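Project outcomes to date are best conveyed with an example. Our students and postdoctoral researchers have been running inverse folding experiments weekly, and each run begins with a structure described purely in C-alpha cells. The record below, which covers 356 residues, was selected by the lab manager from last quarter's runs and is presented without edits.
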C-alpha cells in the first residue's frame, strides 16, 4: 500500500449498546496505541450504553483504561455527535473501523447504517455480519455445506424445552448459549436438570433465541482469516483454558484465565487442514475483511467448527492480532491491510450499476 498524499481519515467506532461494551473500549484503545499516526488522522467515535454517539479527543477519552472491570467512556471529555458525516456531524472520514463487539455492532446493524451513509468500513458486510452473529443460522449454513458442527437444538422464547428430549439427543453435559451474543456471554455448562433450567433462563435473559449444544471434547484451535475475494488464513493457535471452559471471565478479566499457544503444536498437514477449513467457513458464511474461526479438534484429528467472530477482539492479549503477528503481519500492518480491504470493497461496490 503506497503512502497516501494525505493521511487517511479513519474513524474508530467503539463502545456500543452491548454486553461486550467494555471489551470494545479495550480493543479501541489498543488500536489507537498501535496505529501509525503518520499514516492516519484518527477520529474517536464512542457509542454510550444509552446509545448516544460521542466524539472524543486526546488521551482522556477513557476512564480506568487499564482496568477491564471499570473501563468506561469519559463522557465529560466528549461531545454528542449528529449522526451523519460532514462538518456538522462526525466530520470528514474516509473509512470506519468498527470495534463494536456483540449486538448492534457485529450483527449487521452498524454495517447497514454505514452502508446507508456511504462510508466504507472494516470487516464483513451486512449479510455476513448478521449470519456470523446468529449461531443458529451460521451452524445451519455450515452443516448444509458439509462443514462439521456440534449437534444442537434451537429454541425461541415461548417454546417449551423438554429436558428428557435434550438429554436423549445431545447427551450430558451440554452447553447453553444465547444465539446472538459473543465472548461467551450468557454461556453455561449444564449436566443435570437443575443446571439446565438455570442455564436456559440465563441464556434467554440475553436473547430471544437460544442454542443447546452437545459438549465436544477436544483442543480449542483458532484461525484468523483476512481478505475479500481471496481470503487467507493465519497460522492456527490454541487456547488452553484454566477455567471449566473459555468463559467471558477467562477471556478478558482473569489474566491467568487461559494459556495461548501460538502457533499451535500441530503437524504441517493438520495445520493446513485447519487453515483450509477456516477459509472455507469464511466463504460459506459470506464474510469479507476479517473473522476468527474457532474449532474443536477431536482426538482423532477431525475439526468441528464452534463459531466465527466477525469483529474479533483487538486487545493486547487477543488472538486475532497475535495470530497474524505470528504469521508475519504485525499489529500496525494488520490495521493497514484491513483498511485497504475496506477501501477496495467500497471501490468495487461503486462500480456496480444502480440504474437500468
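After processing, the design step wrote out the following sequence:
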Amino acid at each position: 500500500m503506497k503512502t497516501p498524499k494525505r493521511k487517511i481519515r479513519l474513524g474508530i467506532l467503539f463502545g456500543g449498546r452491548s454486553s461486550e461494551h467494555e471489551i470494545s473500549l479495550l480493543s479501541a484503545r489498543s488500536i489507537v496505541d498501535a496505529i501509525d499516526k503518520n499514516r492516519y488522522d484518527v477520529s474517536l467515535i464512542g457509542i454510550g450504553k444509552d446509545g448516544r454517539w460521542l466524539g472524543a479527543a486526546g488521551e482522556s477519552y477513557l476512564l480506568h483504561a487499564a482496568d477491564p472491570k471499570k473501563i468506561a467512556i469519559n463522557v465529560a471529555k466528549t461531545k454528542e455527535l449528529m449522526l451523519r458525516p460532514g462538518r456538522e456531524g462526525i466530520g470528514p472520514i474516509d473509512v470506519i473501523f468498527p470495534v463494536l463487539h456483540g449486538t448492534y455492532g457485529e450483527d449487521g446493524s452498524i454495517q447497514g447504517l454505514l452502508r446507508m451513509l456511504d462510508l466504507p468500513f472494516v470487516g464483513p458486510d451486512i449479510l455476513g455480519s448478521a449470519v456470523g452473529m446468529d449461531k443458529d443460522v451460521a451452524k445451519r449454513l455450515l452443516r448444509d455445506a458439509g462443514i462439521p458442527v456440534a449437534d444442537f437444538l434451537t429454541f425461541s422464547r415461548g417454546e417449551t424445552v423438554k429436558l428428557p428430549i435434550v438429554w436423549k439427543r445431545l447427551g450430558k453435559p451440554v452447553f447453553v448459549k444465547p444465539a446472538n451474543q459473543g465472548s461467551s456471554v450468557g454461556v453455561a455448562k449444564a449436566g443435570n436438570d437443575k443446571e439446565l433450567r438455570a442455564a436456559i433462563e440465563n441464556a434467554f435473559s440475553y436473547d430471544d433465541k437460544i442454542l443447546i449444544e452437545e459438549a465436544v471434547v477436544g483442543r480449542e484451535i483458532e484461525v484468523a482469516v483476512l481478505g475479500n475475494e481471496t481470503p487467507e488464513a493465519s497460522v492456527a493457535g490454541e487456547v488452553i483454558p484454566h477455567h471449566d471452559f473459555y468463559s467471558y471471565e477467562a477471556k478478558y478479566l482473569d489474566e491467568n484465565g487461559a494459556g495461548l499457544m501460538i502457533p499451535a503444536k500441530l503437524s504441517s498437514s493438520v495445520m493446513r487442514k485447519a487453515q483450509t477449513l477456516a477459509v472455507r467457513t469464511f466463504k460459506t458464511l459470506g464474510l469479507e475483511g476479517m473473522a476468527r474461526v474457532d474449532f474443536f479438534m477431536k482426538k482423532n484429528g477431525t475439526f468441528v467448527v464452534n463459531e466465527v467472530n466477525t469483529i474479533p477482539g483487538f486487545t493486547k492479549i487477543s488472538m486475532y492480532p497475535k495470530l497474524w503477528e505470528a504469521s508475519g503481519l504485525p499489529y500496525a500492518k494488520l490495521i493497514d491491510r484491513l483498511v485497504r480491504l475496506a477501501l477496495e470493497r467500497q471501490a468495487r461496490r461503486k462500480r456496480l450499476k444502480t440504474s437500468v
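The chain has three domains: 8-121, 151-214, 217-342. The first helix runs from residue 21 to 34. The training component of this project remains on track.
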